[in-house]
Prior knowledge:
7 strands; 6 helices; homodimer; 40% helix; 7-stranded parallel beta sheet
Amino acid sequence: xxxxxxxxxxxxxxxxxxxxxxxxxxxxxxxxxxxxxxxxxxxxxxxxxxxxxxxxxxxxxxxxxxxxxxxxxxxxxxxxxxxxxxxxxxxxxxxxxxxxxxxxxxxxxxxxxxxxxxxxxxxxxxxxxxxxxxxxxxxxxxxxxxxxxxxxxxxxxxxxxxxxxxxxxxxxxxxxxxxxxxxxxxxxxxxxxxxxx
Amino acid sequence: xxxxxxxxxxxxxxxxxxxxxxxxxxxxxxxxxxxxxxxxxxxxxxxxxxxxxxxxxxxxxxxxxxxxxxxxxxxxxxxxxxxxxxxxxxxxxxxxxxxxxxxxxxxxxxxxxxxxxxxxxxxxxxxxxxxxxxxxxxxxxxxxxxxxxxxxxxxxxxxxxxxxxxxxxxxxxxxxxxxxxxxxxxxxxxxxxxxxx
Lengths: 197, 197
């Protein structure tokens, strides 16, 4: 299958490319570090990416920014970042992608464990991650031509916890997280939230 | 308790006022039909409402617009309506309300059954309702002074189904829905999504 991986140079994206790269024709895309680039917060940039790549069998997104911090210090702009980038950026990959994904193809987005297991500081991120899960469940009822849509909700990744000086023992190895994307890509599930924990 | 009810002239809001009005000091607020008015999509309007009303023990919101329609025909503006109005409008009631809600008070927001039981046409609404539930769970971990926050997720209301010429037998009487708000107001629950079904 011809598969676009967006966020291909991130922690999870790299592991996805590693997991599916020898099984499929992967086109890595990122904000700044790949040959093909996209700013998912910009619909014109998404349109240009699809025009450049052409028709594909699947899109996998492991991309999107949202702000972590105490609710009392989050600004309107902090909430808007999550809404415009991680949330509507990925929603718009679905909306624009419908014209480029082949029959029986799939699109897989990324939310995160904070959707259902919040922590202090996660209000803006929990909002966005839950929104993606609700959107995905609903969008799966409307996709044309047997296109499937699923959401992977990764646990904290071990490497991310280490980078934030948090306890890595609560984390999931990124290779385990990547398997959920493989399952969404190659399986027949539709409208599911896959907890990669 | 002194309780602001926002959306007090709507189908659910009227039932909330009916259910709590003889037990508490209710201040009804709506977009256009009450003495005190608010446009929840406008942070300045929210600030003005709280300045007018002053300190309260609780805020209940049964308000917010979002667009129903096939994903393929929803515009950027349709998605933005839900994000700016029902979602961030209610989120901003929490953010601004923290300065006006008394110790041990509460705030109760409204999502809806489409968060977890979507239907064709519900992508923008399912997104918003799920976002509210994720936000509420997270915000409850950070509220100061024992302020509680909960989300009521109402089933379709019988009267709403009738108004849309849909089968009313799948609906819930609005009096039953109103009881969930009473439970959130007078109980001790925090960070919960109450399914009013």
